[in-house]
Amino acid sequence: xxxxxxxxxxxxxxxxxxxxxxxxxxxxxxxxxxxxxxxxxxxxxxxxxxxxxxxxxxxxxxxxxxxxxxxxxxxxxxxxxxxxxxxxxxxxxxxxxxxxxxxxxxxxxxxxxxxxxxxxxxxxxxxxxxxxxxx
Length: 135
Known about the structure:
One of its GO terms (cellular component) is plasma membrane. Its main location: membrane. A five-stranded mixed β-sheet has the order 3-2-1-4-5, with helices on one face. It has a domain at about 60-130: Nucleotidyltransferase, domain 5 (2-Layer Sandwich), CATH 3.30.420. It is rod-shaped, with a radius of gyration of 32 Å. With about 140 residues, it is of the alpha/beta class. The protein contains three helices and five strands, in the order H-E-E-E-H-E-H-E.
């Protein structure tokens, strides 16, 4: 009796080798590619200084959630702010401005006051923040 071997079906190509190649290419491009655009010069971000005592001296600009302003506790209009800061700068050329904004105030409403103060000649602007509590 002669036994014949069963005829095997042609093996389909496995994709295991293809998956290995794809992962190799992925790792290769991740290692040589830039993940973000870098500046052509060195950039060192500022260090946060929360938890330290607020610097003394200068004036405090308070910004309410509705946009109202107060300079050293006295309400002031946006138009009168430049005049008041210019007056303070004539008395103190190295004036420090602390900006204390309500937590609900968006930063885009606060930054114009920083720009305005810098244009007037204020060189030291401090944004007052409350650090998060670790609970």
